[in-house]
């Protein structure tokens, strides 16, 4: 690689624990500043006159809106390119597309189907490529999720600020996340983040929907200590959990297996009864990356005071703002 090779963000695996914590802290600090009416001088005009290409082959609400809004805060120009707009691997190779687009813009934010597509874009791009969701990873979601957890569990974060900075410095050690549902892209990056931040993660999937073994290896090799447990029984995962998390059972591209999946995931809906039966911690909270379908979580939980979902969605803005600042403005220098 040349000394000018750009640094990409394709998954949480690309970040050290300290870098992940720093991105979360920066996101929190930008959130506070901008909301109180002060755009920090370090980001004012940071992307003035620069274009960021948004290559999206799938639909998006949060990722698109947050990324365009963050680019606007940096005074840059977001150029949205949907699958009907450009020749992304359809009538032109990924290689050629990446070389051409990256010669004209400051970064590519790409939402693709197969993870290898975003890897391919990164390989040939002369500017940073940010993964905006692939079938394997969703790093922008994970950063927003840990910002949300950092906000919702301030006492956990405080004790670490005064104590050791092990686990990357967010002080979330000891927290337990229970993931109930499908082992998918959102889970995989969340798991990598949990490994880096010393958070325990308990995953319950139906039989046949477990974390694929290569992915499990990547996740568990990320932490020297055991932090991940897996089960096919939701109650078991929920035990002593601080946070219950799920995502849709039918990710984009899996629509044809919808009926089968809904059958196979019976009993995995997150409800108050499940939290009680399983013995979630007093004061447990609920998270979901959205968009949400009713089958994976009851309305009672989703719209309850325990639910962090809309704060989590808003935090996508502050997460991508920190990522763009780090990877595009600061050229990959995060810490
Ligand atoms: N959570 C998330 O990535 O949402 P969108 O698909 O709407 O971007
Ligand atoms: N797992 C979902 C996440 C959407 C943000 C999907 O891939 O469709």
TrEMBL record:
<dbReference type="InterPro" id="IPR036901">
    <property type="entry name" value="Asp/Orn_carbamoylTrfase_sf"/>
</dbReference>
<keyword id="KW-0055">Arginine biosynthesis</keyword>
<comment type="pathway">
    <text>Amino-acid biosynthesis; L-arginine biosynthesis; L-arginine from L-ornithine and carbamoyl phosphate: step 1/3.</text>
</comment>
<comment type="subunit">
    <text>Homotrimer.</text>
</comment>
<dbReference type="InterPro" id="IPR006131">
    <property type="entry name" value="Asp_carbamoyltransf_Asp/Orn-bd"/>
</dbReference>
<dbReference type="InterPro" id="IPR006130">
    <property type="entry name" value="Asp/Orn_carbamoylTrfase"/>
</dbReference>
<dbReference type="InterPro" id="IPR006132">
    <property type="entry name" value="Asp/Orn_carbamoyltranf_P-bd"/>
</dbReference>
<dbReference type="GO" id="GO:0042450">
    <property type="term" value="P:L-arginine biosynthetic process via ornithine"/>
</dbReference>
<dbReference type="GO" id="GO:0019240">
    <property type="term" value="P:citrulline biosynthetic process"/>
</dbReference>
<keyword id="KW-0808">Transferase</keyword>
<dbReference type="GO" id="GO:0005739">
    <property type="term" value="C:mitochondrion"/>
</dbReference>
<dbReference type="GO" id="GO:0004585">
    <property type="term" value="F:ornithine carbamoyltransferase activity"/>
</dbReference>
<protein>
    <recommendedName>
        <fullName>Ornithine carbamoyltransferase, mitochondrial</fullName>
        <ecNumber>2.1.3.3</ecNumber>
    </recommendedName>
</protein>
<feature type="domain" description="Aspartate/ornithine carbamoyltransferase carbamoyl-P binding">
    <location>
        <begin position="7"/>
        <end position="151"/>
    </location>
</feature>
<keyword id="KW-0028">Amino-acid biosynthesis</keyword>
<dbReference type="Pfam" id="PF02729">
    <property type="entry name" value="OTCace_N"/>
</dbReference>
<feature type="domain" description="Aspartate/ornithine carbamoyltransferase Asp/Orn-binding">
    <location>
        <begin position="173"/>
        <end position="325"/>
    </location>
</feature>
<dbReference type="Pfam" id="PF00185">
    <property type="entry name" value="OTCace"/>
</dbReference>
<comment type="similarity">
    <text>Belongs to the aspartate/ornithine carbamoyltransferase superfamily. OTCase family.</text>
</comment>
<dbReference type="InterPro" id="IPR002292">
    <property type="entry name" value="Orn/put_carbamltrans"/>
</dbReference>
<dbReference type="GO" id="GO:0016597">
    <property type="term" value="F:amino acid binding"/>
</dbReference>
């Amino acid at each position: 690689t040349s000394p000018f090779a750009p640094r990409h963000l394709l998954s949480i695996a690309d970040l050290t624990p300290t870098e992940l914590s720093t991105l979360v802290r920066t996101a929190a600090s930008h959130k506070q500043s901008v909301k109180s009416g002060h755009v920090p001088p370090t980001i004012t005009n940071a992307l003035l006159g620069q274009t960021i290409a948004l290559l999206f082959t799938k639909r998006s609400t949060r990722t698109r809106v947050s990324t365009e809004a963050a680019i606007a805060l940096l005074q840059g120009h977001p150029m949205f390119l949907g699958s009907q707009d450009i020749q992304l691997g359809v009538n032109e190779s990924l290689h050629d597309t990446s070389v051409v687009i990256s010669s004209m813009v400051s970064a590519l934010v790409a939402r693709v189907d197969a993870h290898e597509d975003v890897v391919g874009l990164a390989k040939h791009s002369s500017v940073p490529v940010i993964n905006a969701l692939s079938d394997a990873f969703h790093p922008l979601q994970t950063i927003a999720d840990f910002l949300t957890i950092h906000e919702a569990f301030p006492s956990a974060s405080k004790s670490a600020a005064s104590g050791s900075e092990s686990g990357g410095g967010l002080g979330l050690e000891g927290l337990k996340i229970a993931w109930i549902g499908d082992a998918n892209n959102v889970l995989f990056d969340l798991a990598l983040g949990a490994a880096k931040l010393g958070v325990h993660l308990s995953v319950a999937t139906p039989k046949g929907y477990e974390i694929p073994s290569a992915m499990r290896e990547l996740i568990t090799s990320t932490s020297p200590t055991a932090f991940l447990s897996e089960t096919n029984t939701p109650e078991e995962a929920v035990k002593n959990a601080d946070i219950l998390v799920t995502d849709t059972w039918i990710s984009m591209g899996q629509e044809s297996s919808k009926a089968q999946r809904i059958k196979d995931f019976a009993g995995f809906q997150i409800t108050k009864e499940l939290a009680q039966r399983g013995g979630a911690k007093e004061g447990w909270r609920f998270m979901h990356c959205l968009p949400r379908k009713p089958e994976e979580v009851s309305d009672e939980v989703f719209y309850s005071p325990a639910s962090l979902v809309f704060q989590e969605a808003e935090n996508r803005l502050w997460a991508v703002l920190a990522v763009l600042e780090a990877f595009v403005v600061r050229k990959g220098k995060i810490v």
